[in-house]
């Protein structure tokens, strides 16, 4: 009987988090993290601007993450101008490696906001298992969630930005 209860609870919790990850009703959790300048940021403040906010979880040791964010870097000025989009890159590097993040992004001239989730609280709150993992927020709601990166994913993301902003 205990085994059955455990199985049912596991299924309910799994379905619940999958539902939240599908992006249609999930909201951004309130977690306090620091940006690379050392300022405390509340994650719940993102996504309530009426404009799309792209949140990308990454790490300095993750080659697909760097490829994705470097691709976004090239497209970001256009996305800002056309869609009013903002981009927040959330580093999940631990406390030992967090000091490497600022020089890392400076060497690549990334101009978007970079947060340090050294305790991975925001990562856990967003049910991120692997990086890279990208979310798009609109009006405080998660409207898109995608794990991994391969060339061309940015085209799908831009199509979504067009739809969200009515610029199809």
Based on the model shown, name its key terms.
disordered N terminus; single chain; alpha/beta; Glutaredoxin; 5 helices
Write a short abstract of this structure.
The chain is α/β, with parallel strands linked by helices and 168 residues long.
The helix-and-strand class reads: alpha/beta
Helix fraction, binned, reads 25-40%
> What global shape is seen?
globular
Number of helices: 5
How are the SSEs placed, and which strands pair?
Blueprint: H1 2-21, E1 32-35, E2 40-42, E3 53-58, H2 63-83, E4 86-91, H3 101-108, E5 113-116, H4 121-125, E6 133-138, E7 141-147, H5 153-165
Parallel strand pairs: 3-4, 4-5
Antiparallel strand pairs: 1-2, 1-5, 3-6, 6-7
Protein described:
With 168 residues, this protein is α/β, with parallel strands linked by helices. The protein has one domain (2-165): Glutaredoxin (3-Layer(aba) Sandwich), CATH 3.40.30. The chain contains five helices and seven strands; from the N terminus they run αβββαβαβαββα. A seven-stranded mixed sheet has the order 2-1-5-4-3-6-7. Helix 2 packs parallel to helix 5 (153-165). It is globular, with a radius of gyration of 17 Å. The relative contact order is 0.20. The model is unreliable at 1-25 (pLDDT under 50).
């Amino acid at each position: 009987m205990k085994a059955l209860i455990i199985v049912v609870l596991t299924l309910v919790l799994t379905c619940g988090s999958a539902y939240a990850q599908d992006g249609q009703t999930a909201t951004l959790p309130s977690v306090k993290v620091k940006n690379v300048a050392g300022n405390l940021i509340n994650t719940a403040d993102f996504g309530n601007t009426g404009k799309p906010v792209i949140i990308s979880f990454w790490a300095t040791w993750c080659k697909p993450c760097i490829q994705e964010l470097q691709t976004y870097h090239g497209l970001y000025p256009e996305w800002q101008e056309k869609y009013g989009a903002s981009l927040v890159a959330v580093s999940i590097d631990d406390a030992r490696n967090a000091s490497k993040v600022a020089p890392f992004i400076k060497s690549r001239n990334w101009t978007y906001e970079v947060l340090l989730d050294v305790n991975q609280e925001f990562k856990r709150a967003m049910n991120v298992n692997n990086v890279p993992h990208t979310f798009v927020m609109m009006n405080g709601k998660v409207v898109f969630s995608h794990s991994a990166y391969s060339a061309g994913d940015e085209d799908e993301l831009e199509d979504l930005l067009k739809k969200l902003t009515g610029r199809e």
